[in-house]
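Retro notes, structure queue

What went well: the backlog is down to a handful. What didn't: a couple of records were mislabeled last round, so from now on we paste the full input next to the output in the thread. Example, using Class I SAM-dependent methyltransferase from Halosolutus amylolyticus:
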Amino acid sequence: MEVPCVRVTREEGEATRSRLADADLIDDDYEIDVEDGELYIPVSDPDAVPAEFTVVSRAVPERRSQTMPADLLGFEPSYERLGDVVLLDEDSQERALEIAQAIVDSDLPVETVVNKRSKVKGETRVRDWEVLAGEGTETVHREYGCEFALDLDAVYFSPRLATERHRVAEQVSADDRAVDMFAGVGPFVVPFAKRGAECVGVDINEDAIEYLRKNARRNGVADRLTAIHGDVREVAGEYADWATRLVMNLPHSADEFLDTAVELAGDECVVHYYDIQHEDDPFGPGERAIRAAARPEYEVTVENRRVVRSYAPHEENVCLDVRLERSTTQ
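Corresponding output:
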């Protein structure tokens, strides 16, 4: 029987599956099919599929009966998957253990279940985790054809930003010279380098930089990616006037690094500036801060204003794509 399916390349399969699952659009009565390097993901409502995806009609196998955590619990638990690790955010230890056991007993292909024990903290942006099932917190996450080894206990990583990272990466060309000022394990600069760009990733977290170097080798881009451990404000002088593209993904405090961004920027540079602000004016504070830091040396053009996700009640995580062009009047 033919059913509507989203057709994507194998490299984009996991990120696409995650987006469709978040929108509750996957038809669980059928299996995901693979042929000639493309995936066919059955969907329950083709009219609700985002326009960027291609929907086709295809005969796919009916899904064999799978036991999911909800089948064992009697309710749908909330969790995220990162590689072969499942992430919980449960205040109740009893409930967390109950969900963890159901996940282990289900047919989900996972090795480890962890529960958040703290918020992101400190300048290295890590959080504490409690291992409820399995061993250790190291895993390998895959998105859009890249692989990222990481240890949840040692580095910050959010699987929720995969679509946003891909959006930015698609703007990158082989002519770019890109600096990620808070690079982590490389989810921005590794894809940039795979597109041929010359990249620099800086992070204050030494563990993250070690993983960034491993991930550069893992993805075959070590020759185009330089990983630097340190405060970007202290190392920027080595790359002054160099960058054609900057990533500033440090919401809440990216504005404190705008002078450094201006120092790194070449004659023309696109800045991807991430911020968290109240829903009443999510873009204004960032725009004003960027203009104050860049003028009069640069002409400032905001090319895109994007809400990435809801961060908290009445707070939005946003991105500003801003072009800086050195002023000819200087």
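Agreed that this is the format going forward. Reviewer comment attached to the example: The mean pLDDT is 93.
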